[in-house]
Amino acid sequence: MSALRQTAAQIARQARAARPSGARNTRSYASGHGHHEAPHTVEESLGPAFYITLSTFVGSVFVYQISRPGENGELSTMHKWARNLSDYGTEWETKNHLMTAALEQAAHDRHLLYGAERSKHFELTYPEVFTQGSPFNVPAGHYPNISKVVAHYQKQHHDEEARKAKKLAAAASQ
Fold first, then answer.
1. Of 164, 154, 158, nearest to 125 (Cα)?
2. How far apart (Å, rounded) are the C-alpha atoms in residues 118 and 120?
3. Measuring CA to CA, how many Å separate 4 from each of 15, 16, 17, 135, 164?
4. Which SS3 state, helix, strand or coil, does residue 32 take?
5. DSSP 8-state symbol, 129
6. What single DSSP character describes residue 38?
7. pLDDT band per the 50, 70, 90 thresholds, residue 63
8. Can you give the pLDDT at residue 158?
9. What is the DSSP letter of 58?
């Protein structure tokens, strides 16, 4: 009996190995025994094609409306818009041209002023201008005597005041 049992076990093992594991018996719950429910409804959107078609239609109507000429032969809105765009470009062109001309003139003036001879004469109107500098580390008696310079500018000031007074007297007598 033992040989018969061994043979039967061997055949059973071979049958199990030959059968795929996915082919097991599974229970189906859709058999319909007593449970009749309505199928589940799925809410589907309209999809992008619908919205693209709709927006193309609305856009076409809009472009048609703005491209039509107005009453009494007025220009269409689209024509006016295109004209404004072309005017905008020429406006910027004019501004750029004026700016370039101003910059070129400024560069010319700069070179002209830098190349011009400067006056070597400086009018010294107050005596402190001669004694500018640090008062420290100056030995006593080493400041220059500027009394002649002060007298010169005082005389120049009195002459200028006399000229102004004479001019005012001449203007008052007329």
1. 154
2. 6
3. 17, 19, 20, 134, 152
4. coil
5. G
6. P
7. confident
8. 94
9. H
CA distances in angstroms from 5 to 12, 13, 16, 84, listed in the order given: 11, 12, 17, 102
CA 75 to chain centre: 35
Alpha helix segments (H runs only) across 36-146: 48-67, 77-115
Confidence at residue 28, expressed as pLDDT on a 0 to 100 scale:
59
Provide mean pLDDT across the span 76-88: 79
Q: pTM for this structure? A: 0.28
Looking at the chain, the whole-number percentage of residues with pLDDT higher than 90 is 26
Among 109, 89, 108, which residue's Cα sits nearest to residue 97? Answer: 89
Single-letter amino acid code for the residue at 164: K
- Give whichever of 9-23, 69-83, 104-118 has the largest mean pLDDT: 104-118
Q: Tell me the C-alpha distance between 168 and 156, whole Å.
A: 19
Confidence tier at 159 by pLDDT (50, 70, 90): very high
CA distance 20 to 22: 6
Could you count the other beta carbons within 10 Å of the beta carbon of residue 32? Answer: 9
**Residue 8, both tokens:** 């039967």
Mean pLDDT of the chain: 81
64: phi then psi, degrees, rounded to nearest 5:
-60, -40
